[in-house]
Specification:
heterodimer; A: mainly alpha; 7 helices; B: alpha+beta; Protein Transport Mog1p, Chain A; 2 domains; seven-stranded antiparallel sheet
C-alpha cells in the first residue's frame, strides 16, 4: 500500500512535501529561539530563575517546548502540505514532520548543540519527532476535514392562517 | 463461498469507509476536530508544565532560597540566582559540579566534589598531596588559562589561611589576577578569586570570583552560602 502510494506521488507533490518540511523546520527554528528565552526571562522577572537548576524544571520545560514549539511547527508544515495535497494523507503527512525533524537534528549537530557522547534521547529525539508528527497530522487533516455547517432551524414560526380553524 | 466472502469484505469496507467519512465530519467546540485537538494539546501541555514548575518551586523553596540537594552536598541559594549542577563520569571516577551566580553581576561560585576514585586519580595526575597544594595548583592553572586570553595579566596572592568548609578545615587563598578579565569590547579588569579546598578521602573545592568591584559586592553572599551548605556521606 505504501509502495503504491509513493509511486503515485508526482514531482509536484514531492515539492509540496519538501516545502511543508521546510515550513516545519523554519517554524521550529524560529520558535526554539524565542520560547526557551521567553521562559527564562519570565522566571527572571518573577525572581525564580534558580528554579531551572532542578530536574523537574527540565521536565516542565520539555513539556512546554512540546506544546509551544514542536506541535505548532508540525501543524504549520502539515497545514501547508494538506492544503496542497488531498490524497494519501495518512502516509504523506509524516514526511514534512520527518524533514523538519531531520533538519533540526542536522542544524543542532553542525552547530555543536548536540554532543554525540552525551545524547539525551527524550529531549533531543523523542519530543521533537513526536510533536512534529502529531502536529503535522493534525494540521493536514484540519485543512481537509469535511466540515459541515449544521443548518440552524428557523427562529421565527410562520403561521398558516388558512389552516386555522375557527 | 468465495462470492459470499467477497460480499462480506466489500460490505465491511463500505461500512468502514462510511464510518470514517462520518468521523471526518465530527466537530468539537464548533471547530474541526483536528484543530480542536491541536488547541487542546497546546493548552494541556502549557497547564501541565505550569503545574510541574509550581510543584518544583513548592518542593524546593525555603523562604527566599532554593535548596539544591546533590549526592554530597545540600546547598541553599537565593531563588533569583542562576544555578546549575552536573556530573562528569569517566573511568577514573566521578566529579560533581555546582555553579551559582547572581544574574546581575559578573561574579560566580563553583563547587566541585571528587569521589574517592576521582580523588586518587586527581592526586596522581597533578602530583599534589594536600589541600594547600591543591589550592595553589588550581590558582596557578587558572592563571595560566587567563594568560592565553590576556598576555599582560599578573597574579598577586592577597591572603592565605584556613577556613571551615562543609564541616572540614580547608586551606584557602585569595588572589587578584590583574588585567586578567577581558570583556567583549576588549576592556581589561582585575579579576579576584578565592579558592579553597578540603580533603577527607574526597576532594571538596569551592571557588568564587568577581570582576572588579563585583567581587566585593558578592563575597559575603558567597561566604554565607558556603557556611550554610551541609555535606552528606554520599
Amino acid at each position: 500500500m505504501i509502495r503504491t502510494s509513493l509511486r503515485s506521488l508526482e514531482y509536484r507533490s514531492l515539492l509540496h512535501i519538501a516545502i511543508g518540511g521546510g515550513i516545519s523546520f523554519g517554524a521550529t527554528y524560529f520558535l526554539l529561539s524565542i520560547v526557551p528565552v521567553g521562559v527564562r526571562l519570565l522566571l527572571f522577572s518573577l525572581g525564580y530563575v534558580g528554579l531551572l537548576a532542578f530536574t523537574e524544571a527540565g521536565s516542565a520545560m520539555s513539556l512546554f517546548t512540546f506544546g509551544t514549539v514542536f506541535l505548532p511547527s508540525g501543524f504549520f508544515g502539515g497545514l501547508y502540505t494538506g492544503s496542497k495535497i488531498k490524497e494519501n494523507l495518512r502516509i504523506i503527512l509524516v514526511f514534512p514532520a520527518l524533514i523538519g525533524f531531520i533538519g533540526l537534528i542536522a542544524l543542532r549537530y553542525f552547530t555543536g548543540y548536540i554532543n554525540l557522547s552525551a545524547i539525551d534521547p527524550q529531549n533531543d529525539f523523542l519530543i521533537p519527532i513526536l510533536g512534529n508528527v502529531v502536529g503535522s497530522y493534525l494540521g493536514g487533516y484540519a485543512v481537509n476535514w469535511e466540515f459541515e455547517e449544521t443548518a440552524r432551524p428557523s427562529e421565527t414560526i410562520e403561521l398558516d392562517l388558512s389552516q386555522v380553524k375557527s | 463461498m468465495l462470492v459470499f466472502l467477497r460480499h462480506i469484505y466489500m460490505r465491511s469496507l463500505t461500512e468502514s469507509n462510511d464510518r470514517l467519512r462520518r468521523f471526518m465530519r465530527r466537530t468539537l467546540f464548533r471547530m474541526r476536530l483536528p484543530l480542536s485537538l491541536f488547541i487542546i494539546l497546546i493548552l494541556v501541555s502549557c497547564a501541565a508544565s505550569y503545574v510541574v514548575f509550581y510543584s518544583a518551586a513548592a518542593a524546593h523553596l525555603r523562604g527566599d532560597y532554593f535548596r539544591l540537594e546533590t549526592k554530597y552536598l545540600d546547598i541553599d541559594f537565593p531563588r533569583n540566582w542562576v544555578a546549575m549542577s552536573w556530573e562528569e563520569k569517566n573511568s577514573s571516577g566521578t566529579k560533581y559540579g555546582i555553579l551559582l551566580a547572581p544574574s546581575n553581576l559578573r561574579a560566580a561560585m563553583l563547587i566541585t566534589v571528587y569521589d574517592e576514585d576521582a580523588t586518587k586519580a586527581y592526586l596522581e595526575q597533578y602530583h599534589v598531596t594536600d589541600p594547600s597544594s591543591v589550592t595553589v595548583f588550581e590558582l596557578k592553572r587558572l592563571y595560566n588559562w587567563t594568560l592565553e586570553k590576556s598576555g599582560n595579566a599578573t597574579l598577586q596572592f592577597v591572603e592565605n589561611g584556613t577556613i571551615p568548609l562543609f564541616g572540614y578545615m580547608a586551606k584557602y587563598s585569595t588572589a587578584i589576577i590583574r588585567e586578567g578579565f577581558v570583556d567583549d569590547r576588549g576592556a581589561r579588569y582585575n579579576w579576584t578569586w578565592t579558592f579553597m579546598s578540603a580533603m577527607d578521602g574526597k576532594i571538596f573545592q569551592a571557588a568564587y570570583h568577581g570582576v572588579g568591584e563585583d567581587y566585593n559586592l558578592t563575597a559575603n553572599s558567597f561566604q554565607s552560602i558556603l557556611n550554610a551548605t551541609r555535606a552528606k556521606a554520599g
